[in-house]
Design a protein that fits this description.
Blueprint lengths: L29 E7 L15 E3 L2 H8 L9 E9 L2 E9 L9 H10 L5 E8 L18 H10 L7 E3 L9 H18 L3 E5 L11 H9 L4 H4 L2 E5 L2 E3 L12 E5 L4 H12 L6 H8 L1 E2 L6 E2 L1 H10 L14 H39 L4 H16 L7 H17 L3 H10 L4 H8 E3 L10 E4 L4 H12 L17 H7 L1 H12 L3 E3 L2 H14 L9 E2 L3 E4 L5 H8 L8 E7 L3 E4 L15 H17 L10 H21 L7 H4 E5 L7 H5 L5 E5 L20
Parallel strand pairs: 1-5, 1-6, 3-10, 6-7, 7-8, 8-18
Antiparallel strand pairs: 2-5, 3-4, 9-15, 9-17, 11-12, 13-14, 16-19, 18-19, 20-21
Helix pairs in contact: 2-18, 4-5, 7-10, 8-10, 9-10, 10-11, 10-12, 10-15, 11-15, 12-14, 16-17
InterPro entries: Tail_sheath_C, Tail_sheath_structural
Protein name: Phage tail protein
Family: Belongs to the myoviridae tail sheath protein family.
């Protein structure tokens, strides 16, 4: 708008009459801080420690992978003979040593209970396909990683809930709750988020669960912090399915018909076959000729393509073209095929050795020990730095990179320049003098020299089992994937039994979903209680009225713990709505705290447009009108108590009302807002009495 008029003409001035509006912020955007299989968007590891917004399980799996497969699920098959008919009983038990990483399962539970957009912070990776700067996590030893993730979440304004799915793996209650104290401190500092807290564990056998006492002992008693968190108990038994590794889960098979060795013998005979077994594969890889020091085979074929004049001619004048690259890739592909076959035979022999050791352990531990020792010797050529397995893996990666190499420089780098290159990897299999002619390789080191001898020694130990086993069936010591091939019907029954195992999870992720669902359906002012949980089949602890008396009301410190209970005919319900400030009349209820969070953050963002505006009555009227309009809408929606807006809230701003002249001189505009937030009817008391008959 022009402030002076100099040129004759018509001028238009738009006069603002309406105040701006308050845009309501999101109320249920949790940040899940924990461990993932990977953290990759476009480049390996580019999401490490980066709060990443997702909206579905599909996105989670795409960026962060799945759960770490279980390897210790216990499977036992018992065969008995009853009236000439074999009766097979199957027993499947929970993993003996469950993986501590629960993020994937927790996200499933979150979305199943109504969750929507959320943030994932990967503080460590347990997968194997990682970037060079990352390292695989196998256990959770301290809370440092979680605190690093928490610090990153502090930078994300949209987050309103904090959840730590993997924190229960921390070894001590003090460290576990120290993490939650840090989260509560962040909530108090930022005043826009809320922490959902689990107990460290649970004790179904004890009516006075020590985990409850630990929470009240180690969670801070600071009232400023307590109002920003809520705890839930007990853990949940869900219908989610375990991820498991069929290659590593071993079956125990007991039978009246001791037939385990028959299967073992049949398989090791195939493995040691000179024409089609492991010896044949070794011959394909490095075939010793009659000329001392010369070899041929798949390795030699690759080296010839690298060093001969008809190939890349690394020993002379390097040159590359599409024909040479294609011939080289064909040779590498053949080599990888042979190494893959070798790896398969190694896996098969390991399976038979472990099956034999497990089969004989009840009858003769000495034989079992001999098998185990021979197996270690056999595997030594394959496992470890610079050994066959590592070379095989590196060559697979190099093969893919060579396929994509589109310049002579890139090809040369992959052949013998990069830290991991074809030349260096092949030398680990065969140390040789670089070729100038196609006459073979002068071999000084042969990685396969002892493989056949060690195979033979191991098979000799395995054959000592013959005739000595008394009680094991044909599937004993077999991996689940081997059972699929040998007895598909039993395999399918095992899968069904594993699927029926209840997967236990702490309740925080389910509650994050409940918060989102209730906020969406009713509003943030509705207490997230008297709500059923999805995907939950049972509770780990049956909470009674007597137990909840102590959980809900804590006379000493006011640290209320919300119970999740099972009711006949109703199912499993959330049966508590208190913050940790259970004795505080202002902040006792979760819905009140979270409603204030929403209003405070929404009004804060909306009033930002008035910063540096004139601090006078015109501005005050606009600010007051804006906030009044917003709170009237909240009152109409049912968030504020009162029959009129005047009873539900007030907004004060102005000289002599909320500010002094000195405040204005100091640049302060002070706005006072009071709200009569609705509170849940936690205790409904029905009073009955006799009425005297009147007629």
């Amino acid at each position: 708008m022009a402030t002076t008029y100099k040129t004759p003409g018509v001028y238009v001035e738009e006069i603002s009459k309406l105040p701006p509006s308050v845009a309501q912020v999101e109320t249920a955007i949790p940040a899940f801080i924990g461990y993932t299989e990977k953290a990759t968007n476009k480049i390996k590891g580019d999401l490490k420690g980066v709060p990443t917004r997702i909206t579905s399980m599909l996105e989670y799996v795409t960026y962060f992978g799945t759960a770490k497969p279980e390897t210790t699920i216990e499977i036992t098959i018992n065969d008995t003979l009853l009236n000439g008919v074999t009766k097979r009983d199957l027993v499947v038990k929970q993993p003996a040593s469950r993986e501590p990483f629960l993020m994937y399962y927790s996200l499933q539970l979150y979305f199943a209970n109504g969750g929507g957009p959320c943030y994932i912070v990967s503080v460590g990776r347990y997968g194997t396909d990682l970037d060079e700067d990352d390292s695989q996590v196998t256990s959770i030893n301290n809370s440092d990683d979680f605190n690093d993730g928490l610090a990153e979440v502090a930078k994300v304004d949209e987050v309103t809930l904090l959840v730590f799915p993997d924190a229960t793996a921390l070894s001590t209650p003090s460290e576990f709750f120290s993490l939650y104290n840090d989260a509560l401190a962040q909530c108090d500092k930022l005043q826009d988020r809320f922490t959902i807290i689990d107990t460290h564990s649970y004790d179904a056998a004890s009516p006075g669960d020590s985990n409850i006492a630990d929470l009240r002992k180690f969670i801070s008693s600071d009232k400023a912090w307590a109002k920003y968190g809520a705890a839930y108990y007990p853990f949940l038994k869900t219908i989610l399915n375990y991820q498991f590794d069929e290659k590593k889960i071993i079956v125990s098979h007991y039978s009246y018909d001791a037939s385990a060795y028959e299967t073992i013998e049949e398989n090791i005979t195939a493995i040691e076959s000179p024409s089609s077994g492991l010896p044949a594969v070794v011959a394909d890889l490095v075939d010793l000729t009659t000329t001392p020091g010369d070899i041929s085979g798949a390795i030699s074929d690759v080296l010839l393509q690298m060093y001969s004049a008809s190939g890349f001619d690394l020993g002379g004048t390097f040159s590359s073209d599409s024909t040479k690259k294609t011939a080289f890739l064909d040779a590498v592909e053949a080599l990888l095929g042979s190494l893959g076959e070798l790896n398969d035979f190694k896996t098969k022999l390991n399976t038979e050795a472990k099956a034999a050791s497990d089969t004989i352990s009840d009858e003769d531990q000495t034989i079992a020990d001999g098998i185990d020792a021979a197996l270690v010797t056999f595997n030594a050529d394959f496992e470890g730095a610079g050994k066959i397995d590592e070379v095989y893996s590196n060559l697979q990666e190099l093969f893919v990179k060579m396929q994509n190499a589109d310049t002579s420089t890139k090809i040369k780098n992959l052949l013998d320049v990069n830290a991991v290159n074809f030349d260096a990897e092949l030398k680990k299999l065969e140390d040789y003098t670089p070729l100038n002619t196609q006459t073979g390789i002068t071999s000084n080191t042969d990685a396969f020299a002892n493989v056949l001898a060690n195979m033979t020694a191991l098979i000799i130990e395995i054959r000592k089992v013959e005739g000595k086993d008394k009680n094991n069936g044909a599937l004993n010591g077999r991996s689940l994937i081997a059972v699929e091939q040998e007895d598909n019907a039993t395999y399918n029954k095992i899968l069904t039994a594993i699927g029926n195992l209840p997967l236990e999870l702490p309740p925080s992720s389910a509650m994050a979903g409940v918060y989102a669902r209730v906020d969406s359906e009713r509003g943030v002012w509705k207490a997230p209680a008297n709500v059923s949980l999805n995907y939950v089949s049972e509770l780990t602890v049956k909470v009674t009225n007597d137990i909840q008396d102590d959980l809900n009301v804590h006379t000493q410190g006011g640290k209320s713990i919300n119970a999740i209970r099972a009711f006949t005919g109703k199912g499993i319900l959330v049966w508590g709505a208190r913050t940790l400030a259970g004795n505080d009349n202002e902040w006792r209820y979760i819905s009140v705290r979270r409603f204030f969070n929403m209003v405070e953050e929404s009004v804060k963002k909306a009033t930002g447009v008035f910063v540096f505006e004139p601090n006078d009555a015109n501005t005050w009227v606009k600010v007051k009108a804006m906030i009044d309009n917003y709170l009237v809408n909240q009152w109409k929606a049912g968030a504020l108590a009162g029959t009129t807006p005047e009873q539900a809230f007030y907004v004060k701003v102005g000289l002599g009302e909320t500010m002094t002249a000195q405040d204005i001189l100091e640049g302060q505009m002070i706005i006072e807002i009071g709200m009569a937030a609705v509170r849940p009817a936690e205790f409904i008391v029905l009073k009955f009495s006799h009425k005297m008959q009147e007629i």
